[in-house]
Structure formats: C-alpha cells, structure tokens
Design goal:
Layout: H1 2-10, H2 12-29, E1 35-36, H3 48-59, E2 67-71, H4 76-87, E3 92-96, H5 113-119, E4 120-121, E5 124-131, H6 136-147, E6 152-154, H7 156-189, H8 195-213, E7 220-221, H9 222-252, H10 257-284, H11 293-322, H12 324-329, H13 340-368, E8 372-374, H14 386-398, E9 402-409, H15 413-424, E10 429-433, H16 435-438, H17 450-456, E11 461-468, H18 475-491, E12 497-500, H19 501-535, H20 539-562, E13 565-567, H21 568-597, H22 602-634, H23 638-668, H24 670-674
Parallel strand pairs: 1-7, 8-13
Antiparallel strand pairs: 2-5, 2-6, 3-5, 4-5, 9-11, 9-12, 10-11
Helix pairs in contact: 1-10, 1-11, 2-8, 2-11, 6-7, 7-8, 7-9, 7-22, 8-9, 8-11, 9-10, 9-11, 9-22, 10-11, 10-19, 10-21, 13-20, 13-22, 13-23, 15-18, 19-20, 19-21, 20-21, 20-23, 21-22, 21-23, 22-23
C-alpha cells in the first residue's frame, strides 16, 4: 500500500491537473442537470395513482387540475374574461369555472346554491387551473399577475413554482455560511493558515465532480439538489482532517515529505475507507426504497462520498505536497487547547452516562416510532410564507377543496350515471363534472360539442372530475380515497383509474411506510457486516451500531415529546443519513482506543483516546451540525428545513454518544473489545 501511494505522490503534478480538469468539467455540467420539484413523481411506476396519471395523459389533453386561483371584487362577466386570460397563459393546460357546470346567463338566485358557492361568493371568483409540468415557474408568475395583489393561488402547481424559485437562493446562502464556518473551524484545528483552504479546495473538487456527474441520472430531485452538495462536504470533511493529523505525526519522524505522506496514507487508509464505506452503505440503503426519492438522494450521496474518498486519498495528498513550502511559511501555533482535561472529565462521568444511555434505549425507540406523520407536500410551506397565506385566504372564503379525476372504461352512460349518483352521495364529494352529469345519460354523444366531448370522453375512457372538500392529506382524505375506490371497484372491477393530489399522497403513505423496516434493516445490517470484517470482532459492531442507532432514536423521539408532526420521508431518510454520516466518529474513536489500549491501562486509554480524537471528531461533527441547523432555519421548504434540523440535532446526539458514552461502553467491555491479546504490564486496572 505504501508503495502504491509513493507512486501516486511522485506524480503529484499530473494528479492535481487531472482532478482540476474533472472539477472544471463538473462545474460546466452542473447547470445542465434538471431538477424535479414534484414529490409525487417519485412514486413507484406501478402505484395506482401513477398508472392513473399515465393513462389520463395518454387518453386526454390536459392533466389533473393542480391549482386554485382566487380573484376578488369581480362580476360574473369580468370573471369570464379572467378565465379566458388564465387559459391563454403559456403553461396553463385548462381552466374550470362556474360556466362549466351551469348556464351563467341564469340569474344567480336561480342557480343551485352549492354549485354557485363552489365557484363564486360575494363577488369573489375561484378558478380551478391545470398547470403544465414544463414552464410552470413562468406560468405561476403570470397567474399571480392576473389574480392581482388581493388575489391568491395555491395547490400543487403553485407550490412547485415556489419551491423552484426559493430553493436555489437558499441553497447558495446555506453553502456560503457552511463553507465559512468550516473555514473557521479548520483554521482553529490546523497548524497552518493555508491548510483550511487546501482542505476546502479538495472538498470543492469532489463536490463539483459529483454535481456534474449527476447528469447520468437524467434529473435529480429538489431534495438532492438542495442538500446533496452541502451534505457531501459535511460528511466528507473528516477524511482530509484525519489525513492531515496523520501526516503531521509521520512527518515529525521522517525527513522525506513524500515518504511521510505515503506512510500517512498507508496508516490512515484503513480508518478512512472503513468510515467512508459505512457512509456509502448507509446512503445506498436509501436506494432500496420503492419511493424513488430515496434512491435519487441515496445514489447521489453515495456517489459523492465515494468521489470524496478518492479525492481525499489521491488528490488532497498531492495538492498538500505541492503547497507544502508555502504552507510551512504560514505555520502558526495550535489555536485549540489540548483535550486532556476533557479526557479526564469523560473518565469520571462516562460510566454513569453509559448507564443512563442504556436505560434510555427502549423509551427512545418506542417514542421514535410513535410520532405523528405528514406524508405529502401539503404542509411543505409554513403558514407565514406567501403560499401559506394564499392557501389560508382561499380556504377562508371557499373552504378546503381538492380535485380528483376518475377514469372508467367505455361509453356505457347508464352505468356511469349510477356510478356518478353513488359517488355524489359520499359525504365529502361536493361536485362531479362528467358527460352524464353535464348532458345526461339519455343525451346522444353526437349532440355534444366535439371540444367538450374530448374533455370528457376518449375512445377508451370516460372522465369524471370530482370536487372534494377534504385537505390534501389526513385521515378524512385517506378514508375518502378508499371510499371512492371501493365504489368504482363495485361498478368497474379492476378497470378504473383514480388520480389527484390526495390520491397520490395516499399511495405515497402506503409506499413509504412499507419502506421503513427494509431500509433500516439493510442499512444496519450492511454497516454491521463492514465493521465485522474490518474490525474482526463480533462485539464491536454491536456496540458501535447500537450507540449510533440509540442516538438516532433519541433524535427522532424529540418530535414525539414536543407534540409536533414530522414528514415521514424525512423520518425515513434521516435514519440512514445519521447512521452513515456519524458512525465514522465511533469507528475512529474505537480504533484509537484499541491502539492506545495496547500500551496503557483502561482508564488511561480512555483519557488518551478522547484527547487524541476530540479535535477530529468535533471538527467534522460541528460542521455537520451547523450545516444541518442552517438548512433548518434558512429553508422556506418545510421538508428541507425539517431534514436539516433533524440532521443538526442528530449529529449533536451522535457526538455526545461517541465522546461521552462510548468510552464507558468500551471500558466495561474491555475484554471483549481487546480479545485475548493482552499486553504485559497493563493487567492491573484502576477504577474510573
């Protein structure tokens, strides 16, 4: 291994040139990677709502209505003009209003009051709009211009546009703060003013290569786009930090810098690779989710960490050697105090903390599994955001509403009339727009306008548009979806298709809840296997995985005890991310403990190990914590904000578990940790 690294660093100019060229290519390719802001697009291809959308797009022009637009202080003729203006907006596929259900030349007092109240109340008009998947940002901007300052717009099509507009600016801000904090932390924990810059250059090269190579996926989700690069930087920072500290140790006893670097690489490769491999595996476990947002994020992060590993072991050492003359000129005294005092403190308190930690395992596990969950995108924006205010304004006047589309086969109008009648009896169905409701089952098809007929019937299916007064998700929504499917199954067994925001959220709930056990078991099992092979101990993988998993359970129990809900997608993703990102700290600590234990008693090994590893662990952990908290407090997208808060808080729990609890667990199980190999002169133990 040392010979291999010697050959690499001997060609350091070539290596640095090749990596910089790859980073430049990644920087050019990065803007070419499309970003998808629709969570529902990541449902499995065979989920009922996904199949329904595919059939709908194949059979009919236009899609499912995905926006509600409210305009105040308008007459009926003015509302008709606004409807026409909305329909002419590029990216708007269709607009539905009162005139699609009743004859608007009829006096308002003579109209069906329930139908009228669904579209027009006290001079305020509510339009149902279908926004296309392409050009939706520009379309929503035009829609809001037409609605005016007093108007409002909400729905899936609107939230996608708001996510697209706000996320990129927030990502840049998080990146600036995150990199600045990392620079400060590295300046405090290294001994040259140049080393922090070199470490960040290495991370930047890895991030740019990974971001550009995401083009192989065709597109990435807004979650991956928002947090992929910053998470890659945060979880990969410790690889270069580990190497720097090893290089300083090896250089102190060797005159040849290149040889010292080769030796440092040889000594640190095992720890870095095992740490990186467990992180990669934790992220790859997300790829097993049927909900494809997991694979989108997991594959991008796993690829990013793998690239960071290669960069840390190949590019960074070569760059460090090239910059060594300047780095030496910028040497300074250590700015961080020694952590011997912390080691002695941990020695005194670790056993009580370990006991409390063990007691907390079961309650933390039970609480983490008893959370209240949100599944879809309905609460992705806070009530204080523009989207939240608009949604509240519309619901204040017209109440909650969503639109479902039911496709049934053939042109059997008699059966469709019976189906429509039974659906209309359901508690939360407020209106149905279909051929049999608009024209009547007895009216021949040829008497209907061809354009109107094309919206309601195709060669194979009849289209029924259902207005419902339930939220986009929740118990009442899920119950209604089940009722509608049961009624449709009664008349058209196995032949109908149902689509809509609430329907997709129902399928999303059904999909992600089934993913939980599989993803967690695979992630834990794979990490356990890697640790088993690298540490050659059955006991250590149990201790390390249990330590980090308990930190995860403690993190996820906080929403339960605080009485707040949590996005199930975040709940599922954070388990794999926290495991993969922070098990590195436990590996580093355990490796150093075993190394120190060969020449010291147990209590001395605890003190020395804390002192040896605290800087490296806290450097990486503090950056990951701050990056997570920045994402939590800056992101207007509540899913991303919650993911950031859980990541930041979870890292704190993991840091506490590794630095304060793991020493006690290793101490009390020392014979299992060290095996039968005992060094002479250290059999006599002192109590902590």
């Amino acid at each position: 291994m040392e010979r291999f690294y010697g050959a690499v660093v001997a060609r350091r100019k070539l290596v640095v040139t090749l990596f910089l060229l790859a980073a430049a290519a990644g920087l050019v390719l990065r803007p070419m990677v499309p970003v998808n802001y629709d969570i529902n697009d990541y449902l499995p291809a065979d989920s009922p709502s996904t199949v329904a959308i595919d059939v709908l797009e194949e059979q009919f022009d236009g899609g499912i209505p995905n926006a509600r637009v409210m305009v105040r202080d308008v007459t009926v003729p003015e509302a008709l003009q606004i409807k026409q203006r909305l329909a002419e907006v590029p990216g708007v596929l269709g607009v539905t209003w009162l005139d699609d259900s009743v004859d608007v030349t009829t006096p308002l007092a003579a109209m069906d009051q329930d139908v009228l109240d669904s579209y027009y109340r006290d001079g305020t008009a509510l339009f149902t709009v279908t926004v296309a998947d392409e050009g939706y940002v520009e379309a929503v901007a035009a829609i809001r211009d037409i609605a005016g300052e007093d108007g409002a717009a909400s729905g899936g099509g609107i939230s996608k546009a708001d996510s697209a507009e706000g996320t990129m600016d927030e990502v840049r801000l998080i990146g600036v703060f995150g990199v600045s904090f990392a620079l400060v932390v590295l300046a405090l924990t290294t001994t040259s003013w140049l080393e922090p810059v070199l470490v960040l250059i290495g991370l930047g090269v890895a991030v740019f290569i990974n971001a550009g190579s995401n083009l192989i996926f065709g597109e990435i989700s807004f979650v991956t786009n928002a947090c992929g690069s910053i998470l890659q930087m945060a979880v990969s920072l410790d690889y270069s930090v580990f190497l720097l500290h090893r290089f300083d140790e090896c250089r102190a006893g060797q005159g040849d810098d290149a040889a010292a670097m080769a030796k440092a690489l040889s000594l640190s490769t095992g720890s870095i690779l095992s740490s990186g491999l467990t992180t990669v595996i934790g992220f790859l476990a997300l790829a097993l989710m049927r909900f494809r947002l997991g694979s989108d994020l997991g594959l991008a992060l796993a690829k990013g960490v793998a690239i960071s590993l290669i960069t840390a072991l190949i590019f960074v050492p070569c760059m460090l050697l090239l910059a060594l003359p300047l780095s030496d000129k910028l040497r300074h005294r250590p700015l961080m105090p020694g952590f011997g005092g912390m080691g002695r403190l941990v020695r005194r308190i670790t056993l009580p903390l370990a006991a409390a930690f063990i007691v907390a395992i079961v309650p933390a596990y039970l609480a983490s599994n008893a959370n209240q969950f949100t599944y879809g995108a309905s609460e992705m924006f806070s009530p204080e955001s523009r989207y939240g205010r608009d949604t509240a304004a519309i619901e204040e006047v017209f109440g909650r509403s969503d639109t479902y589309v039911l496709l049934v086969p053939g042109r059997d109008t008699a059966t469709q009339a019976e189906l429509s009648h039974e659906l209309g009896q359901l508690e939360h169905v407020t209106g149905i727009l279909s051929y049999v409701d608009l024209a009547g089952a007895e009216v021949p098809l040829e008497y209907l306008d061809s354009d109107d007929l094309a919206q309601l019937m195709s060669d194979e299916y009849s289209r029924m548009v259902l207005s419902v007064d339930v939220p986009y998700e929740g118990p009442s929504t899920f119950a209604l979806v089940e009722q509608i499917r049961a009624v449709a199954e009664k008349y058209y067994p196995g032949q109908y298709h149902l689509a809509g925001s609430g329907v997709s959220t129902y399928d999303l709930m059904d999909t992600v809840t089934a993913d939980l056990v599989k993803v967690n078991l695979v992630a834990i099992g794979a990490v356990f296997l890697v640790l088993l092979l690298t540490m050659r101990s059955l006991w250590l993988p149990v201790v390390l995985v249990l330590t980090i998993e308990t930190a995860i359970w403690l993190n996820l129990s906080v929403p339960y005890f605080s009485g707040s809900s949590i996005f199930y997608i975040t709940y599922l993703i954070i388990s794999a991310i926290q495991l993969g990102a922070t098990v590195d700290y436990a590996i580093l600590f355990t490796d150093r403990y075993r190394e120190n234990r060969r020449s010291a008693e147990r209590h001395q090994a605890v003190v020395k190990t804390v002192a040896d590893t605290a800087v490296s662990i806290l450097t990486s952990g503090s950056v990951l914590t701050v990056v997570g908290l920045l994402m939590g407090y800056i992101s207007s997208n509540q899913l991303l904000a919650q993911l950031g808060l859980l990541l930041g808080r979870g890292t704190i729990f993991s840091l506490g578990a590794v630095l304060l609890v793991l020493p006690g667990l290793l101490y009390v199980s020392d014979r299992l940790v060290m095996g039968r190999r005992r060094d002479a002169g250290i059999e006599k133990e002192e109590r902590i």
